[in-house]
Amino acid sequence: MKKKPQYIFIAVLALLGLVLITIPNGMRFTGFVFLGAAALWAAGLLLYRWRKKSRGALWLYRLFLAGTALMLTLLLSIEGVVVFHGEADNSAVPVDAVIVLGAGVNGETPSAALWSRITAAADYLEQHPDVPVVLSGGQGPGEYISEAEAMRRALWTNSESWNERYLLEDRSTSTAENFKYSKELLEEYGLDTDTAVIAVVTNDFHCFRTHLIAQRQGLHIVDVPAELPWWWLTANYYVREAFAVVKTALFDR
Fold first, then answer.
1. Which ranges of the chain have pLDDT less than 50?
2. What is the distance between the alpha carbons of residues 17 and 15, in angstroms, rounded to a whole number?
3. What's the pLDDT score for residue 160?
4. CATH code matching the domain that covers 97-230, chosen among 3.40.50.620, 2.60.120.10, 3.40.630.10, 3.40.50.450
5. In degrees rounded to 5, what are phi and psi of residue 11?
6. CA-based angle 84:201:232, to the nearest 5?
7. What is the pLDDT of residue 184?
8. Torsion angles phi and psi, residue 199, rounded to 5
9. What residue spans define the domains of the chain?
């Protein structure tokens, strides 16, 4: 590729990134990825032009190429695992309890991600009417009610067994806390969480990371993946999730 088209490509990537970051559309992370890609491409172009000036510059360019290739290979490999876990069908697996993980709430209105989880949970719970259910999610910035309360309002039915079966966990601020506090509630309910099989309702892109975190807390889970309604938002979250998996694997304990 000639230099001028490359400069145009870098500028377009950077502009798209700025637009996605600026406009509230749920695509901020993709915007940052575009900006990062533009910066990486520009750095590679500069190193390519500089490579003939010295042997050190040539080795620096080669190191840059190797590092970039390694990073892309790692991220694509993780992405493949994330996609694989998100396509699991565990609807026929017998379970002892269900945990529905919360997602963002806009004021008192569930976000697209949370609505998709509520919808998937409603369908799944119709097939498993006799197991305890934990609605798990605290209250974050810009949320007038907890995520657990938002799910309760959407799933509530006027039946005598509802309050006995549904447990609200409204303290958590992360997936790790979702599992920690939900585990405590289920044990208070009388469930042996060391041996129980627990269905976890979350978005498809989030399934692999929930497994990593649940295993660290001694929980045996099966996925109930929920799909977002828009492909571009799904793509954004899948890209973001690859980086989140790396963070969880290295730092979250």
1. none
2. 5
3. 60
4. 3.40.50.620
5. -65, -40
6. 55
7. 96
8. -85, 135
9. 3-86, 97-230
